[in-house]
Structure formats: C-alpha cells, structure tokens
Amino acid sequence: xxxxxxxxxxxxxxxxxxxxxxxxxxxxxxxxxxxxxxxxxxxxxxxxxxxxxxxxxxxxxxxxxxxxxxxxxxxxxxxxxxxxxxxxxxxxxxxxxxxxxxxxxxxxxxxxxxxxxxxxxxxxxxxxxxxxxxxxxxxxxxxxxxxxxxxxxxxxxxxxxxxxxxxxxxxxxxxxxxxxxxxxxxxxxxxxxxxxxxxxxxxxxxxxxxxxxxxxxxxxxxxxxxxxxxxxxxxxxxxxxxxxxxxxxxxxxxxxxxxxxxxxxxxxx
Length: 269
Description:
The protein is mainly beta. The radius of gyration is 18 Å and the shape is globular. The strands form three sheets. Strands 4-3-2-15-14-13-12-11 form an eight-stranded antiparallel β-sheet, with no helix packed on it. The protein has a seven-stranded antiparallel β-sheet with strand order 10-9-8-7-6-5-16. Strands 1-17 form a two-stranded antiparallel sheet. The chain has two helices and 17 strands. Pfam families: Root_cap. This is Root cap.
C-alpha cells in the first residue's frame, strides 16, 4: 500500500515547490528561477497521464529588461477532465476574504469556506480540500499527485526589498505551491517535471545566488488548459507504460514530516 505523507501547507523550501517570483525547487532538490512572462502560460509538468500548467502574472517597472512574475493560476488536465484554480485579483489583501476561484470541466466550482471543507469529482478522481478556512487547499488526484496551495499577496516588505513597484490597485495575489507525486514516467517534461527525469542534469549553475533557467519556448502553452507546448507529452488517454520507471522509487524516503523531508514523498506501509 502506498501513502502520500504531506504537510497540509506548501513547504517553499522543499522539493517540488514553486513560490515567490517564481522560485522553484526541483525533484533533485536544486533551487532555480524561471521567470517566464507576464500573462502567458507555461507547462510545469507534462506526463503521459497528467498536465499541469501555470499562468504567470507580473509587471515590468521602467528600465527593467524583463517582467517580475508570479504564478497566479494552475490548470490541470487528466484523463478527459480539466480543473483550474486561480488567485483572484484584489487591490488590497484581506485575510478575511477568500481569494480562490475554481473550475471543473469548464464550469465554475464552489467549495464552501471552512477548514477541511471538501469537494470530490463525480468519478472520485479529483478532490479539493480546504486546509484552512480560506486561501489554502490541497488538491488530490488519487494514485497520481497531491498539491498543496496557498494564496498570498506581494507584501510591502517584499516590495521594498526587491523594488517591484507594486501599484496601489493590485496586491498581486499569487500562489505558493508544492507538488508531490506517487509516480511519474521517465518521459515527464515541464519546467519542474524535467527535474524528475532519472538522467536529468540541472542547467542551474552551482554557486550562483539566483540561478535562472530558460526554456520559455519549450514550455509555453496557448492557454491555461492546453497541452500544446513543443515539449508536452500529455495524452488525454495517457496510460503509464509499465516500462516507464516511476521516478519516486529511486528517491530517498523520509516520512518524518520534518523541515528537511520532501524527497520522502512515497512511503510504503
């Protein structure tokens, strides 16, 4: 029997994390930055039976050569279904307001506020559970993946430190995310997905404080719920080939739930 051992909130310092502007931690534990571009979509994971895209939002202050970006939404494709989750735009952040919006198969989905409030798809192949009363959820695809998500604003302190120049009419609510998987094929692709390949060599330069990797053209999709990037391998009827190695089998397992855990995603019992 396999169990997925997770904290209820994303650990932005653990493998599979995508937080901040955006700072990623690969399946190999290496930190890297992928800036993408504001108002465009990129494949984070593309596997035979699963596609996870991100929509980036951002801004470019005068004099900068690229956008500051954050992940504003996730789009998930599995079997013949689609699911999306996004942080709604607000001028100012309010902890008492839920900043999450959901859709399933193109229709808006309402999940009542409240800790542990949950929704399941008719086929029981997707569950969304609130891990706090507002702004935090865990998305589960049984036997495939578990995703911990927070919605947060760009804080005044971060704005001051990084000189983002956040406008007064948008707090740039965005997602903090951590992905954990029960198994990925050896063909997995995507900004994060490629770091789970068995022979992956991370292009992030060791010793660099903020290693940036490219690949925008390889991972760009035309929409949040498309699997049309040049490196995408998702098929709506995708079935894992038994010959494809399951990436988590060769990871060091750690089910303690401690701050250094994260490679220990799959635990046998």
